[in-house]
Amino acid sequence: MISRSRQWLFRLKNAMWPGQAESELGREVRSHLDLLEDEFRRRGLAPADARAAAHRAFGGIAQAKELHRDARSFVWIDDAVRDLRQATRLLRRSPLFTMTAVLSLAIGIGANTTVFTLANALLFAAPIGVASPNRLIDIGRDDRGSFNNLSYPNYLDIRDRATTLEGIYAYLPAGTPMSLGNSGIVAERIFGNLVTSNYFTVLGVRPAVGRLLDVRDNEQPGASPLVVLSYGFWVRRFNADPAIVGRQVQLNGQAFTVIGVTPAGFQGTNVIRVDLWTSASMAGVVVPKAGNLSLLNNRAINSFFLGARLKPGVSVSQAAAELETIAGDLAREYPSENRGERLRVMASAPIPGNLLPVTGFLVLLLGIVSLVLLVACANVAGILLARAAARRREIAVRLAMGAGRARLVRQLLTETILLFGLGAIGGLLIAREMTSLLVLLMPIIPIPIGVGLALDGRVIALTVGLSLSAALLSGLVPALQASRTDVLSTLKDAADGSLGRVRLRRAFVVGQVSCSVILVLGAGLFLRALQRAATIDPGFDPHGVELALVDLSLAGYSDTTGPPFAKQLVDRLRALPGVQEATVATTLPMGGSWRLRLTVPGILPPAGQRFWEVNGSMVESRYFATLRIPLVAGRDFSDADRGGTTSVAIVSEATVGQFWPGQDPIGKVLILENGSNTSPGRSMVVIGVAHDANYRSLGEAPHPFVYVPLQQQYSPQMMIAVRTAHGERFAAEIRSLVTSLNPALPIITAQTFADLTAVALVPQRIAASVSSTLGLVGLLLAAIGIYGVSAYMVTSRTREIGIRIALGARPATVVAMVLRQGISLAVIGSAVGLALGAAAGRLMRAFLFGIAPVDLVTFVAVAGTFVMVGLAACYVPARRATRIDPIEALRYE
Predict the structure, then answer these.
(1) Which residues lie below 8 Å from residue 82, measured CB to CB, with a gap of 6+?
(2) DSSP secondary structure string, 194-224?
(3) Which partner for 430 in 110, 118, 720, 755 could form a disulfide, CB atoms 3.0-4.6 Å apart?
């Protein structure tokens, strides 16, 4: 009985092999039970006792089935290990194929990973040191679709009325330049931020040293001269001294007390990197033009961004609905300051507000790098088809020996997944280097940006998922095609008679060429756009001009002491050797502008608005001569245009067209509103007309612009502009002069005007660089694909070509036959790529500076390039075809 039971147990284990159907296992076990039942009956036991004994012996049919399923899973793992080993051996035997495929995949995956990393840092990265960042939201003013700042009084009302939020904080949206140092010592320029006292509490930040600002700190104006240092600044400037708490530092000439240090890596919820934080109550000390505390008590001055934390169980839409109601109440209560704008609520992001420009640029880059990956996948798929054709005898033998089609497909897919896994590893290594290059390509900007481009878990997961998906898409079709091999015909004849396989490989090559054409076409359009940008007249001459940004409020200058110092600074700059012209201005072309509210006598503003809003700048005399902006009428500002004299202004040609078309603008009056409902605006007499200049972007349409003398409309933050005789760098001389005039006044940034204007071309330059580099890769892969198809055609038709040569075909005829097939692939792929490129070009219109999306020069050049590449790729197989020996060809199998 025991030996019989062991025999049945052995048969039961064999029955659990995955090749058996589960129903067969059940029948097998039941038959064993019947035999066991008969045995027990012969021994005098009741059938019920026999069946109970059988259930105890084998655990029952249900347990057997469970064991069967476990065995199946273990067999799958065992199969996967064997397939992986075999795939590794096969790839090791074909080093050239492996190296080519892995390198092309690594480039495509690496480029995509780089863009993923950039998008993650700019759009999705969770802030370091913040508790539950998924519950944070950004609140802004919806001004004509833009996400804009709010005033401090409005913040207070929203904070007190909202019930769906745990807490609402406010902060200045950009780093505020500050002067660190004692009187008489050369000041160090740093960047700080003004935040409300509950800022760190709502974010859930814990200090590394000391404490942070909280509700215990007085929010009355000027009552809390306290600072919190960033961890990096604490280490860099104070050598991580733990005794820093309680020490005083001089900010803008006033003593502040250090109360704590933030945790390492914390920089708030956005990409602006600052050195310290101080209370918003100190706006009168650290913010330009805030000496009268207007940032804190004027509801019309929108300077703060708002953030909040949702209460548990509250959704973003619920909070948005409540804030919309509050916004409506504020618009009714304060109609003159709140002009009916709605509040927008968005999930907290590293770049608060309107992400459309950033997202659009990232989508453009993602489209470019995705094309490279498609080219690489098509290339690998084509090579896999060729390898499957070469292994057709092996596959036929496997099928003849009983291998299932699904089992064969799994084995072939394992080889593909291994290839893509190696490509993913190489792609991660390439991405690490490419992100470093992106940092080098970043332009010089006056605000410190802290963007972490590390390959974090989210990016690695996306890369792995992308690689696996691409492997399945690229390897599934070749694997299915290979598993359809006709066993009998393949074992009888070595020739591959699968016409579908040949057509499929040609389709992959056409796809490669099409994607490569789009890449090269995009590169050509961007290069043409950059060439066009160089010919655009921006209305000024940036060459040979050195710039330096200063903020007189950092050294304690006021509305009365600031203008004389600015005049003295300009006079001293003009006296330096090698200086042709010098001036200062609040903003320069391509560097932004101020928004001025104007009333134009006799001309009503647009419906629903109380004022005309135009761009403007406060400038010193000789501004137009320094930047070489022509004056088309009237005169320039002079030393006589100072405080206490008749207020004057110079307008752009577009301003004349807007307000006084066909009239003489000289002597016309503009009223500069001051934002107050009680005091009237200041009347300004137009004394000149300046040529239109581009202030926001190259190629923009002319728009109204108003220039006001700095001596009559003071602003402490100003840009120094010095034009030198020979265009040499002049930053050291400017810095030395400023230090000699006032050591407490730091230079915030220094750069050339050409660098400033180059910022406007950053998207085009990056897109052109990426698409050009990857376009060359795509072009090479397309050439390899065309070469592979042509070489395979020559090999598969060796006997036919030999017969043609034996019958008297000339070498030129044989070459033409091979070239015809390769060129047809290039022509078809180019035609498809040009058609898709024409559609894609319309999506890039905003980046092309007037270049037509269907630019004839670019399209013809790209088409000609790919035809030439097709000819070159087919030439070697064509030459080899002419050397075929007819006698050897007739023996060819």
Answers:
(1) none
(2) EE-TTHHHHHT---SEE----TTS--STT--
(3) 110
Rounding to the nearest 10 degrees, give the CA dihedral for residues 314, 317, 321, 326.
70
Query: Model confidence at 71, in pLDDT bands (50, 70, 90)?
Result: very low
| pLDDT value of residue 203 | 92
pLDDT tens digit sequence for 291-326: 445 778 878 778 888 999 999 989 988 998 998 898
SS3 551: strand
**Rounded Cα gap, residues 516 and 833, in angstroms:** 8
What tokens does 860 get? 């013809």
How many other CB atoms are found less than 10 A from the CB of residue 720? 24
Task: Give dist(CA 439, CA 498) in Å, integer.
Answer: 51
Over residues 531-558, mean pLDDT:
81
- Dihedral in degrees, nearest 10, Cα atoms 78, 80, 82, 84: -150
User: Backbone phi, then psi, for 583, in 5-degree steps?
Assistant: -160, 175
* pLDDT for 292: 43
Q: Are 261 and 210 in contact (CB under 8 A)?
A: yes
Is the predicted pLDDT of residue 842 greater than 60, yes or no? yes
Q: Do residues 353 and 270 touch, judged by C-beta distance below 8 A?
A: no
Q: Which tokens go with 329?
A: 């109440």
Q: State whether residue 612 is helix, strand or coil.
A: strand
Q: Which of 176-190, 265-279, 738-752 has the lowest mean pLDDT?
A: 176-190
| Cβ atoms within 10 Å, residue 415 | 21
Q: Which residues contact 305 (CB under 8 A, 6 or more apart)?
A: 138, 139, 140, 149, 150, 170, 171, 172, 173, 352, 353
* Cβ contact 113:459 at 8 Å: yes
Cβ–Cβ under 8 Å, residues 120 and 445? no
3-class DSSP state for residue 249? strand
* Residue 230 identity (one-letter amino acid): S
The pTM of this model reads 0.67
861, pLDDT greater than 80? yes
Sort 577 into a burial class: Cβ within 10 Å, 0-12 / 13-18 / 19+: exposed
Residue 126 has what DSSP assignment?
P
CA neighbor of 196 nearest in space, from 269, 279, 297, 294: 279
Q: Which two tokens stand for residue 231?
A: 């961890």
Given 3-state DSSP classes, what are the helix, strand and coil percentages for the chain, each rounded to the nearest 5?
55, 15, 30
Which range among 400-409, 578-587, 657-666 shows the weakest confidence by mean pLDDT?
400-409
Tell me, what amino acid is at 411? Q
Residue 310: the pLDDT is 92
Determine the pLDDT at residue 615: 87
* CA distance to 335, 398, 601, 610, 689, per residue, from 606 (Å): 17, 80, 14, 8, 24
pLDDT above 80: residue 114 = yes
Distance (Å, rounded) from C-alpha 102 to C-alpha 458?
23
Please list, in sequence order, all residues whose beta carbon lies within 8 angstroms of the beta carbon of residue 235, skipping any fewer than 6 positions away: none
Tokens standing for residue 90 = 């096969």
The pLDDT of residue 780: 80
How far is the C-alpha of 570 from the C-alpha of 550, rounded, in Å? Answer: 13
Q: Return the H-helix or E-strand segment holding 670.
A: strand 669-672
Tokens of 672: 């500069």
Closest by CA position to 764, among listed 483, 479, 364:
364
Most confident of 151-155, 672-676, 695-699, 836-840: 151-155
| 647-663: average pLDDT | 91
Residues forming beta bridges with residue 651, ordered by sequence position: 689, 706
CB of 108 closer than 8 Å to CB of 427:
yes
Using the structure block, give the residue that is written with the tokens 């110092």. 565
- Structural contact between residues 310 and 164, judged by C-beta atoms closer than 8 angstroms: yes
The lowest-confidence range among 5-14, 379-388, 597-606, 807-816 is: 5-14
Contact 268, 222 (CB under 8 A): no
Q: Are 750 and 734 in contact (CB under 8 A)?
A: yes
**Which of these, 495, 512, 377, 497, lies nearest to 786 by C-alpha position?**
512
